[in-house]
Write a structure and sequence with these properties.
There is one protein chain. By secondary structure, the chain is α/β, with parallel strands linked by helices. It folds into 2 domains: 85 residues, Rossmann fold, CATH 3.40.50.10860; 125 residues, NAD(P)-binding Rossmann-like Domain (Rossmann fold, 3-Layer(aba) Sandwich). It is 40% helix and 15% strand. Strand 9 and strand 10 form a beta hairpin. Helix 1 runs parallel beside helix 10 and helix 6 packs across helix 10. The longest helix has 21 residues.
Length: 286
């Protein structure tokens, strides 16, 4: 019997309903939520992501302001833009679309963000809070948080469960490990140097894959009864996207699985908007 599919949009829509209520409360208090999105260059995927935030923000009553700069923009000019947005009291969140063009240091730009406006959770202060278990003080990266929201809202119990996390990257794997530990899961983190990856993957009651490699985890690496969360997004030759899990072979083995597209990725923009509201609270404007 094929696995239950844990789809993202129904959960995203529920969160959006909650956001809409909070936005109205915020506006009644005199604070109009505003997100600034900085896009340097013309990376096709980044342009699509930036525009999608505009559309979602419009539906939720959140102002999304795009700051588009050519790829030739000097690093110093980008940093000055960040400084200006940091100082603007009408801007409550800042997000820099990645990748940045060559010649612009990602770490330098991310560190320049006001941690209280860093809705993508990339600033070292937010990473430190998350690593230290102070989740209530942190703005958390969208994709790891989307994984948690999917599981919790789908009724997947994390406390005491054995979770195999495939991927240790800065964007998803490492922050997700901290989120899982905070929820009392027992985690095993796998990566490219893991010996006998299939046997380790089979031991997890929950398997979360965020390695950035299409089809890395296949059905013969999985076990009946497992819940599989696929956080991978990989481009296909036909222009579509696929996950890190070979869905066709996995869906007939496990208990539940997230599809790609239609799973984790469906929540990320919504999580960014939720982070904006959390930023407003952390800034003392709620």
């Amino acid at each position: 019997m094929p696995a239950e599919q844990i789809k993202g949009m129904p959960i995203a829509n529920k969160i959006r309903e909650e956001i809409t209520v909070e936005v109205e409360k915020s506006k009644a208090r005199g604070t109009n939520p505003k997100l600034a999105v900085v896009l340097v260059g013309d990376d096709e995927a980044s342009v699509v992501y930036a525009r999608s935030k505009e559309k979602v923000g419009d539906k939720l009553g959140i102002q999304v302001e795009l700051h588009v700069k050519p790829a030739s923009t000097p690093e110093d000019e980008v940093l000055k833009l960040i400084d200006r947005l940091n100082a603007d009291d009408d801007v409550h969140g800042i997000l820099v679309e990645l990748p940045l063009p060559k010649g612009i240091g990602k770490e330098k730009v991310m560190a320049r963000l006001d941690p209280l406006k860093d809705v993508d959770g990339v600033h070292p202060v937010n990473r430190g809070y998350l690593l230290g278990g102070q989740e209530h003080l942190a703005l958390i990266p969208a994709t790891p948080l989307a994984c948690i929201e999917l599981m919790e809202r789908a009724g997947v119990e994390l406390r005491g469960k054995k979770v195999t996390l495939v991927g240790r990257g800065d964007t998803v794997g490492r922050p997700l490990a901290s989120l899982l530990i905070k929820r009392d899961a027992t985690i095993t983190v796998c990566h490219t140097k893991t010996v006998d990856l299939p046997s380790v993957v089979r031991t997890g009651e929950i398997v979360v894959v965020a390695a950035g490699k299409a089809g890395l985890v296949t059905g013969n690496m999985l076990s009946p009864g497992q819940v599989v969360i696929d956080a991978g997004i990989n481009a296909k030759e036909d222009g579509g996207i696929t996950g890190d899990v070979d869905f066709e072979s996995a869906v007939n083995v496990v208990k539940a699985i997230t599809p790609v597209p239609g799973g984790v990725g469906s929540l990320t923009t919504t999580i960014i908007m939720n982070n904006l509201l959390k930023a407003i609270k952390l800034q003392g404007k709620a």
